[in-house]
């Protein structure tokens, strides 16, 4: 597979990012050593890369620390290389809100990290539990975060490094699970139900780029949504399609969804 075929396969908005992955694969062929990419990648990249195993002359590994991580590191390995998660250049940070009077949300922790000038690709998924945030980050920015993230808004905070090899220190996602009933599995129909909005407002959100399907902006409202698809609605949250339960007597679709909380 040449570079053009590789880039076209992903159909991703940032060709430079995909080109860089291809170059790393070529580097692996030359040096014949494991290559660890120093960024976190969303599922629309790493899942497609896994699908290419056997066609690109190498084995692909992924690691995001959390079980069911969406954003993950990618490793490029030979068939005989063992998958060793402790080789990834990643640390797990615990950011603690030290204020007893003001609570912080997921968006507060995310905004605080972004305000430091850190690229979104340099840290993974955030799990917020009570007044603490757990976030995997690239090893090369850990010291910078520890030295500079001293407040979130007006709230003082503390940053600790956890042992991500110890499963007891790794939190799990929390989901709110519910069943929705929609007229079809089209994106606009599901978005309307998830947001509790009208079909026309759903279509408007899609047109304005406020809806992400598997972390990509979509402009087609009639896309058929699949199991395990991740839908992000600006202002409403992030959802995962868990299971299709079939049709009701009136021919409507019953779907189990999980909302990230």
TrEMBL record:
Residue intervals of the RNA-binding S4 domain: 185-250
SMART domains for this protein: S4
Keywords recorded for this protein, A-Z: RNA-binding
InterPro entries reported for this sequence: Nucleotide-bd_a/b_plait_sf, RqcP2_RBD, S4_RNA-bd, S4_RNA-bd_sf
Designated name of the protein: RNA-binding S4 domain-containing protein
GO molecular function (one): RNA binding
Organism: Clostridium botulinum C
Gene3D superfamilies found in the cross-reference section: 3.30.70.330, RNA-binding S4 domain (3.10.290.10)
Pfam families the UniProt entry points to: YlmH_RBD (PF17774)
